[in-house]
Amino acid sequence: MALRTKSHDMGMHTERLSGRTQQRFFEPDAEENFTYPGAYDVDFNKRAEFDAAKLTPTEINHKIRELLSKGNGTIVLKNPGAKHGVAVGILNKLNLIIEGSLGYFGVGLIDGPNVRIKGRVGWSCAENMLAGTVIVEKNAGSTFGAAIRGGDLVCMGDVGARMGIDMKGGTIIVGGRAGAFCGFMMQRGRMVILGDAGKNLGDSMYDGTIYVGGKIEELGVDAVPGEMTELDCQWLERKLKLYGLKAPKGVKNMTKIVAGRQLWNYDNLEPSEKKLIL
Question: What are the tens digits of pLDDT across the range 178-233?
């Protein structure tokens, strides 16, 4: 009951959903119900390395799956060469270490792996991520974490525009600055920006929470300041500690942004009311 109360106080159950409710129940020992068909049983202590310098993105992805099929739970990918579409669609437990930078759409559509990228990433890194962790040690391009649904996505450096666009869950953390339109049409989840945020932050956000440690250039439509609570501070302290990060002025001095909820019933508003919102 205590956990349920905390989640409500943090605004994690503010959305009222309609339609049929699906409830599925599994036996605790029915492991096959919690894994994807064709998922591999891996040993994290079993380690493999390969050089991707002369491989195409398709060949790199096939190589990762080949090593997974042999039970390797830790894979080191060397010399990725900023290629596009690398390490996508991994639906398996895995420790993946990428020694270098990725191009566009890196580690997208993943569910489960823990990934550390020792370089930069291009546009749309971790798009549609479902679960796991992705840590980028340098900077990230635009649309970082687009439509993310779960897990932790962390960039130690700066991030471009439209980070977390259409975000549906999970957590995105940025150690530096973020560009314009971050959190655009955000629906659920938590976004933490330790540096400054660009224009139109949280524009048209439906739900979720954005925390900013630096200056906000401009809030977007229907994004409004929220009240920082003790629960917010506790959550931020725990989450940032996991990745060795700290708020520049302390978590208590961060700015909290939430949805104003004026667009929730936009289609039902009179024309004069629409003018007030726009």
Answer: 999 999 999 999 999 999 999 999 999 999 999 999 999 999 999 999 999 999 99
Q: How far apart (Å, rounded) are the C-alpha atoms in residues 162 and 145? A: 9
CA–CA separation, 109 and 234 (whole Å): 30
Query: What residue has token string 């409500």?
Result: 8
**What percent of the chain clears pLDDT 90, i.e. is strictly above it?**
79
| pTM > 0.90: yes or no | no
| Overall residue count recorded for the chain in this entry | 278
Q: Report phi then psi at 51, rounded to 5.
A: -95, 125
Amino acid at 121: V
Q: Which of 83, 168, 92 is nearest to 125 (CA)?
A: 83
Residue 142 has pLDDT above 60, yes or no: yes
User: How many other CB atoms are found less than 10 A from the CB of residue 239?
Assistant: 18
- Spell out the long-range contacts of 104-110 with Cβ–Cβ below 8 A and sequence spacing 24 or more: 104/141, 107/134, 110/134
In one-letter notation, the amino acid at residue 277 is I
Question: What type of residue is 221?
Answer: V
Given a contact cutoff of 8 angstroms between Cβ atoms, the answer to whether 255 and 212 are in contact is: yes
